[in-house]
Amino acid sequence: MRKTYLKTHRIRLVCGRRLDWGACELIIRGHSSAVQSVVVLADNRHIVSGSSDNTVRIWNVSTGEEERVLRGHSGEVTSVTVSPDNRCVVSGSFDLTVRIWNVLTGEQKHVLRGHFGPVRSVNVSPDNRHIISGSSDKTVRLWNASTGEEEHEFRGHSGQVYSAVVSPDNRYVVSGSSDKTVRIWNLSTRKEVHVLLGHSGSVYSVAVSPDTHHIVSGSSDKTVRIWNASTGEEVHVLRGHSGLVSSVAVSPDNHHVASGSWDKAVRIWNLSSGEEDIPRAFYFGVFSHRLIRQSPCRVWILR
């Protein structure tokens, strides 16, 4: 079983209005073990982090102070996300569970059980109705966000599922796996629509552009690939990283792709042309990152 971790327990917040090194920096400390995942609340004032210390923590962006510690997981927390309505935090863990928490109180609302392997990825659908989770048990599972009940199990991958997301229009589920494929599923019919072939290594991260026209994937083959979401055809292969690409994101304006790699670099690419937009990479030792909607901030997790 592959285990990813960060060598330090810090979160770095970089602020700036351009896609370069920003004007200010805040390093947040508090976790006692590796930070695996971060996400920013819609208010842009709070950060949620998940760690190998088995906790989920909520932080104040302005002060860097810890506001809540969410305890309940018995294994390392590999993925965290926040519901679009900003009311719930969702976390996935090596304890095989997905958990839903109240943002304001820190109370645990539901424990979602069903996976037979570590949960690698969690996300909430844009309409707030569903939670999607990907696991080492080779499945993607769909849960009712209100009740915590499992609604469907997507099967098709022959390897661990490292990343699973719901498209912005709530029509599709997209997943990436150690079987080297990206798969697209119809959320209404629950049927597999496309299998995207091209990567020669495990797919660790997938993202869908806000306009839903493109899918972006990052892989251990050191490439970022852009796909046509409708046809499943490969549009661009982005080469430049010298290590495993562990995280990808698309900017809210659909113009840029950001990728984070084990080569300790973050690279910014033009989505349309596939060219690198900024001639130099940012070397932070990046495991994961987020581009924050309608905010000048970027969050980097340091290795």
Description:
By secondary structure, the chain is mainly β. It has a single domain (10-302), classed as 7 Propeller (Methylamine Dehydrogenase, Chain H). Helix content is 0%, strand content 53%. The chain is built from no helices and 28 strands. The protein has strands at residues 10-15, 24-29, 35-40, 46-51, 55-60, 66-71, 77-82, 88-93, 97-102, 108-113, 119-124, 130-135, 140-144, 150-154, 161-166, 172-177, 182-186, 192-196, 203-208, 214-219, 223-228, 234-239, 245-250, 256-261, 265-270, 282-283, 286-291, 297-302. Strand 27 and strand 28 (297-302) form a beta hairpin. It is globular, with a radius of gyration of 17 Å. Residues 1-7, 15-24 and 283-303 have low confidence and may be disordered.
Form type: globular
CATH architecture, by name, is 7 Propeller
Strand fraction equals over 45%
Number of discrete helical segments:
0
Largest sheet: 4 strands, antiparallel
Helix-strand category: mainly beta
Order of helices and strands: EEEEEEEEEEEEEEEEEEEEEEEEEEEE
Q: Mean pLDDT across all residues, rounded? A: 87
Low-confidence segments, given as residue ranges, are 1-7, 15-24, 283-303
CATH classification, class level: Mainly Beta
Strand order of the largest sheet: 2-1-28-27
Name given to the CATH homologous superfamily: YVTN repeat-like/Quinoprotein amine dehydrogenase
Q: What's the total number of strands?
A: 28
Number of domains: 1
Cα-atom radius of gyration: 17 Å
